[in-house]
Design goal:
single chain, alpha+beta, 11 strands, 23% helix
């Protein structure tokens, strides 16, 4: 699969599979919420059946920023600072919890992106979303996909973000880079994706969402 997808092709492929929305954020009927999550699971979910109870889920949203360079698209990622209480040092998309003031997950993802890396929301053209991702730590994440056209300037929040970097979309789309590994956690064996890129290992929820992105764009 070529990474030289047009904006129209990206939108068309993202619109082929529309995830259910009922129960997002842990609200609504818990049975319907669970059914909605199961309906949106793809091969990126390697630990089915381990979803925390719906009432315990905390709604969050992230932006999956596709940077539209002339020589091919890239994906913008961040590395969290080492002192944070949750997911310290991990590679992540810009994003965070959905606050009461946020109109929807799109608003939350754009607000958090602006706060974390200083990318103004008017520079982001939202084109769709990926499957909801429920983490073992109890977050129910809505990944929002947006296209960013250079040039732009980032202003990183040093408290939350150690650095921001880009990964070629062609690397993400290549299934040979989607490695699986196991780790013991709280007495259980969990399986997760790892995408090794240069000196970094992209793993966990971020890797799962990137694999989901590849599923959609390779379809």
């Amino acid at each position: 699969m070529s990474a030289r997808l047009s904006r129209e092709e990206l939108i068309e492929r993202l619109s082929r599979r529309r995830p259910g929305r009922r129960g997002f954020g842990g609200s609504g009927d818990p049975i319907e919420a669970a059914e909605a999550r199961e309906a949106t699971r793809g091969d990126h979910d390697l630990n089915p059946g381990e979803t925390p109870p719906s009432a315990a889920l905390r709604p969050a949203a992230v932006l999956v920023p596709l940077i539209d360079h002339p020589d091919g698209m890239t994906v913008l990622l961040t590395q969290r600072t080492a002192h944070l209480s949750a997911h310290a040092g991990q590679i992540a998309f810009p994003g965070g919890r959905i606050e009461k003031a946020d109109a929807d997950p799109v608003a939350a993802a754009l607000r958090e992106t602006e706060e974390e890396v200083g990318l103004p929301r008017e520079h982001v053209a939202v084109i769709g979303r990926l499957d909801t991702y429920v983490t073992g730590t109890g977050f129910e994440i809505t990944p929002i996909v947006g296209i960013v056209t250079p040039p732009y300037k980032l202003t990183i929040d040093p408290f939350e973000v150690a650095e921001a970097f880009e990964v070629p979309l062609s690397y993400i789309l290549d299934a040979r880079n989607h490695n699986r590994t196991e780790r013991e956690s709280a007495g259980r064996t969990r399986i997760f994706f790892v995408l090794p890129y240069e000196r970094r290992n992209i793993w966990g929820a971020t890797a799962g969402m990137l694999v989901n992105l590849a599923e959609v764009l390779n379809s």
